[in-house]
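Appendix B: complex inputs.
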Amino acid sequence: MIHRSLNALPWAGAAPGEPADLPETYGVDVLMLAPVDPSRLFATFQIAWSTRNRLVEELGDERLSQCRMILRLHADDQSGACQEVDVSGPSRSWYVDLEITSRSLWGEIGCLEPEGTFYAVARSGRVDLPWERPSPRFDPEWVPVEEAYERIARSVGMHPETLYCARGCVALAEGRDQRLGRKSLPGAVR
Amino acid sequence: MTPASGFLCLVLHAHLPYVRHPEFGESYEERWLYEAILESYLPLLDTFERLAEEGVRFRVALSLSATLLEMLHDDLHRQRFLRYVDSRIHLAEQELQRTSHQHHELRPSIEMYHERFQRFRRLYLDRHQGDLTSAFGRLADQGHLELLTTAATHGYLPLLEPNEQMVRGQVQVGLEAFQRLTGRSARGFWLPECGYRRGLDGILAEAGLDYCILDTPSLVGARPRPRFAGFAPIRTERGLTCFGRDLEGGLEVWSSLGGYPADPEYRDFYRDIGWDLPLDYVGSYVHESGKRLNTGLKYYRITGPTDHKEAYRPGEAAHVAERHASAFLSARQRQVEWLRERMGQPPVVVAAFDAELFGHWWLEGPLWLEHLLRKLATQGQGLESITPTAYLREAPLPQISEPNPGSWGDGGFNARWLNPSNDWVYRHLSAAGQRMVEMARRGDGEDPDRKRLLNQAARELLLSQSSDWAYLMSTGQFAEYARKRTRDHLVAFNLLYDEFREGKVDPEVLRNLEERSPLFRNLDYRAWR
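Resulting structure:
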């Protein structure tokens, strides 16, 4: 499943909350990827006007209008796994639920012709994803004390194997909220 | 190892974003600093000094961010803080007069505030001449505190691009400012929001740092699986030691259901006379615009989940704080005994909190801490307080393992700082980051004005990267201010970039920007190469 960011706006517009006097583009082709969590990725891109013009020149208006804007995510391992996301349309920021499982990946964005030719425009750097669960692998000289894991899991009401993705840090998130966010302290009613 | 059955490592993280508005007589956001000094930093200092003078053996790690240090050393803030304290004292006096013949049940609270405000003013001005940093430094010299620091403007490091140069800039400038303002080198690093991404360890180790603090899940999810889960630090292959925050003890303090600060006897943060009393009475103590704000005088206890609030009873609340300190100590003793039996070595339990919890949010927090440290010194029963560096001196070599990326934000990863309320910032921050690297590599050509321009560009970039802005946008609180600050620094950065590209320097623009943000005076743009 793919979720557009709420700032799905035309190329020439600013996102909600985005100050209108910041540059619309920076004159370069950029694809930035960032993990939101182990299974969701944020992608934001911009394509320079000069690149658009070059594509129009190379492909012609008609062929270009038949192309779809595609984000390709590649597993950075031996698997060769790839996930393709259609990001045609006005939004330049997307949230992607990942279908490939890889510790790290990289992406490219470009135009895909109906017959399958892909014109890459921008490429991201490598992105490392967090692991979702405690590692099954351990060093034989450092055999895990499983009861310690179980104790941590119990303290947040979770099973040890789901501990990591269990919002284990709710407690401090609340604390952080209280610092500047003025969220109610527990027990207060205002 | 010592014969201790386990160690309690208390870590307090003190940070506020850089706020300075001489263009206004008063600004809402500057009050964050004045409230934190009066309600948290001075009460904590007071607590630590009293314990030290009485010869109590205690050890606490205190993280001081570079932006906070810069503000604590700023004469404008010193003057404005004194003005703020004086107006609180005056308000308390006025309140004593107002309640001389009525509302007797509120008098103990008012007298408490009156006494506290005066005492902390004396502590700030008479005893320490407005220099809190040196006061904390002396406690560090005595072995009671270990001071550490964090990224220069508390940038959320996992999301900065290009990552290596951006992180290096945040780390180098943060460490330099810390050294300049405290006169000491930091051995430890508080990762902003406990945000970790692979590769950060190498940059921190290269900068000469020994350790950082991560949230428990980053240790629990480390590869290979750590033998001791979160109860002993791990070491990365690049040589950085990572401590994990303890969830169990953290929940006892922070849980919204049963956390200590929720006790009905404690002071209610939200019932403030700035909201309760007529505006024509409190008007001069809120904001010059006449907008209502907290004054710091709050007379009611939490009472319960009800709008009806009973009068605060300072003496009763103090008893509860002592009881909670005993309960925390006892729970940690049971925890380390249980763990030691299974681990075969003394565990280290890291209790890490925002310093501003103590006193500002939780009025009784410093008292709770004082009782805890006293009891730990005399009734520890094998549980000892320790700092990370002292632990590393005594403990066996940590296991080599690679921490899992994560943060202490809700969800445990990046979602708090990357969501539809704030995701627009990243394409601008990323572009500015690329431009900064480009400028730094091209250099100043030994032109002093061009060097100033490059340094100011780096300063604006750092200020735009503060994790606080994305956080505030995410909560919706002070979101407009957060957007404005992000925008202002990015606009200034882009202006300087354009000038750099055109080979010119507008001296007036540059001077204005330097005067607007007079921090990080030794900043060197070459850190971004």
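Chain B touches chain A through 106 residues (CB under 8 Å).
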